[in-house]
Write a structure and sequence with these properties.
Elements (H helix, E strand, L loop, with lengths): L29 E11 L4 E9 L8 E4 H7 L22
Antiparallel strand pairs: 1-2, 2-3
InterPro entries: Chromo-like_dom_sf, Chromo_domain
Protein name: Chromo domain-containing protein
């Protein structure tokens, strides 16, 4: 049995505000490198990374060639500052 539903018009988003291209596509953005492996072939070794993509679940990660990832996404290899680096006045006991 169907019930009548009253929609909230304040939740409607205008089409102009959505950034969808004419081809209905979007750019995949890597978020994090999860793993690294080196496969040994007969004459060479091939290194690859397991990459987690934005808007995907962990189960949908992919293996990408190390050379390609380093060329296209150098920001993934920049050192990040961790919260425990430096001084924090709230955590100091002196």
């Amino acid at each position: 049995m169907l019930k009548k539903c009253m929609g909230d018009t304040s939740l409607i988003i205008p089409i102009e505000d959505i950034g969808i291209k004419d081809s209905l596509s979007y750019e995949e953005i890597p978020v994090q490198i999860l793993d690294r492996q080196v496969r040994k072939l007969r004459t060479k070794e091939v290194a690859s990374f397991k990459v987690l993509w934005k808007n995907h679940f962990v189960e949908e990660d992919t293996w990408e060639a190390e050379e390609d990832v380093k060329k296209r996404y150098p920001h993934l290899f920049e050192p990040r500052e961790t919260p425990d680096q430096g001084t924090n006045s709230l955590l100091s006991t002196s």
